[in-house]
Known about the structure:
Keywords: Amino-acid transport, Cell inner membrane, Cell membrane, Ion transport, Membrane, Sodium, Sodium transport, Symport, Transmembrane, Transmembrane helix, Transport. This protein is an all-alpha fold. It contains 18 helices and no strands. The protein is about 75% helix and about 0% strand. It is globular and about 70 Å long.
Amino acid sequence: MQTGTLISLALYFAAMLAIGFYAWRKSTDSSEGYLLGGRKLSPAVAALSAGASDMSGWLLLGLPGALYAAGMVEVWIGIGLFVGALINWIIVAPRLREQTEQLGNALTIPEFLANRFPDKALALRITSAIIIVLFFAVYTAAGLVGGGKLFETSFAGLFGQTAMSDYMTGIWITAGVVLAYTMVGGFLAVSLTDFVQGCIMVVALVLMPLVVLSGDGGVGAVTSQLNRIDPGYLSLTAGLSFVGFLSAVTWGLGYFGQPHIIVRFMAIRSVAEVPKARNIGMSWMGVALLGAIGVGITGRAYVEMNGLVLEDPETIFILLANTLFHPLITGFLLAALLAAIMSTISSQLLVSSSSLTEDFYRLFLRKQASERETVNVGRLFVALVALLAIYIARDPDSQVLGLVSNAWAGFGAAFGPLILLSLTWKQMTGAGAVAGLVTGAVVVIIWIALGWNAAFMGGPGVYEIIPGFAMAMAAIIAVSKLSNRQTVSAQAP
């Protein structure tokens, strides 16, 4: 069985590397080409790239695992994300595409913020670069944890004597392939591989629940089994507190501040093509979320009906892939899981690298660096951030959804209000921008450190994005109004 599965995975890895080589030949001769693909992404590639880089391993591991363990009440996370993504495409995408090009042809989010608020340019670039690297190291680690779990579960004993050996082998293989095509092909490689990976992911997510439902007894048997487990298992509200509901749906707030997602808006060919990209992206996302929900729910019924044992709910996708399908198909399904993981990791590594290159190296060390030198330094930073993420991911007991939720909240609170208001509110000032950026990040970090986010789905905790986003928004508005008032007073005769 392992041989057929490994063949499929090897073919998948080869395809990703081939795309990286193609992109290297096409778009790595300049910073704009390496970091934004020359702003020439088609609507379909931009849409699926944004979706695939967003829907990381949590879509096939974290979300199905949460649904497997707790039932339909976890669907509120998906609903909040869908609404947030739609608003992001409507409000942020067209404005960001237009304004980043108008304001000095900014190639990174920190550079855009610096151009938008030149009086606080240095503070914004430094602070935002630090936040990006910090939270992306955690976010990338979440993806690597998914890769480790895949190899630990599917290839037990193949790469070593212990589960830890298989886990670390999975992390190193996942990181190695991503590094290869990201370092070589840059943004175009990441976007094209995202497109292919997005197609693979959605096919796998639709296929797996349908196969379970086509078994003995069909939908009726699955429903009956789930009701026997828990009468409220299929309810959207059973055991859900108001705080739990609010913490779940506010995941959608995070979209406005995710650099690896919104950078895709900057790379679309033109503002006129944003609506087409939005329609493609939201259709893909809707199908993918429904599939992930189906995997978790039908997977729980399948495990119970067949007397199987699943120690880690986040591996239900892997168990179904290994149990229900021919090894070659299993390899395809596991490639879909790797696609979800790798598409996000590659995007995060590239954004971290671009920020370190443009907002640190070029800003402080080599202002006159050539285009070739800048691209090569960017490749080096990709590798360094990846090594940091590998270190964070070394604990096999790490939970994908937990790591993702922390990083998602950090970006959403730090950059979300800042991006929204900088694009839509002309009275916003540089001082307000810095205040919001720092406030959002600090509140999230303190909230996590004090444990106030614990068990937010139905438990006593509050998801950290709520206080972080609210306080960052308040800080931007208050400091902007105050600094505007001070400017008027200083100009008065």
